[in-house]
Amino acid sequence: MSRSMKRNIGELANHPANDQEAIRQPQSPPTKRQKTETTEEKTDAAASFLCMPEPPSEHNVVRDMTPYFKSNPVEQTPQTTTPGTSAISLLVRADIGRFNPDYLDERAAGMEIHGRIMVFTDVDLFIEHIESFLQDPATAAAHERQIMQWLEYLLIGSAGLWWMRELDRVDRRLGGLSEVLADLERRFRLNPFVAAVKFEYGKLSLREIAFDRNRPMQFVQRKLRYARAMKRLDEENTEWVFVMLQVWFSMDAGIRAVLSPPNPLHTFDDYIEEIKQRTPDLKSRALKIYYGLVWEDGSSIN
């Protein structure tokens, strides 16, 4: 029994040494054929693993997601507008301006700029400005509703008092915007006697044009409003030559030297266009005279 135990102990003592020798022994590198067989075995194993059917579960079931993408905004067909119409665009209150017949109009132009807001003192100009937003049939209804909602804000001064005190709620809303504007025009139209005085004594100097090139047309339009208020000029501009001749004589001699008098052989629109075309020449003449380039007689200032 003691001999067998010694033999077993000896085998156990020599076993690690044998293992270390086995580890230390150099192994021959695998041949090319062995490498190819090993790679093919791994490839077959991977292919068989990928081809294994998975058990059905709620995580790997593919669902039809088509109903959730019916209204994809990226893939929608763009809408095209019909030729001859325009897209509905909303107004801004600052686009309309305000009407205040009591506002100080130093240039008597019928409209002044206060900050970024247009303040109309002439009721006809104010109504014409509003009607310019109602020309397009595609946007007229929307713009009319907006302007009706803003009238309480747009009318200030004595016009605001007229809106609040002289018109009742039925008059404000029943007739629509056209009826309100007609009432506004009747209430604040220019007095014929005041218009006659302003038409007679209003003058245009060349110095005014040096500061503002728009003065000639503003002056002419103001005179025409006075003439219409006096009933000297009708809507068809029948007696325009007589009226415009008076307007021409109310200008400085320096202006009349550049702008010719009205000609009966021409039309009213032709003469208005001639005034617009002559305005740059009037501006240039005014700058030469009043800004130190030359005197009117051609002599140098220095």
Series of secondary-structure elements, N-terminal to C-terminal: HHHEEEHHHHHHHHHHH
Radius of gyration: 47 Å
- Estimate the strand proportion: under 5%
- Treating each run of at least 4 consecutive H or I residues as one helix, how many helices? 14
Mean of the pLDDT scores? 75
Strand order of the largest sheet: 1-3-2
Helix content: 55-70%
Based on secondary structure, the structural category is mainly alpha
Spans of 5+ residues with little confidence (pLDDT < 50)? 15-23, 46-51, 56-62, 65-87, 294-302
Can you give me a brief rundown of this structure?
The protein has 302 residues and is mainly α. The protein has 14 helices and three strands. It has a three-stranded mixed sheet with strand order 1-3-2.
List the helices and strands and how they pair.
Layout (H helix, E strand, L loop, with lengths): L1 H23 L7 H19 L42 H4 L1 E2 L11 E4 L2 E4 L2 H9 L5 H18 L3 H9 L2 H5 L2 H13 L3 H10 L4 H6 L3 H15 L10 H10 L3 H4 L11 H23 L12
Parallel strand pairs: 1-3
Antiparallel strand pairs: 2-3
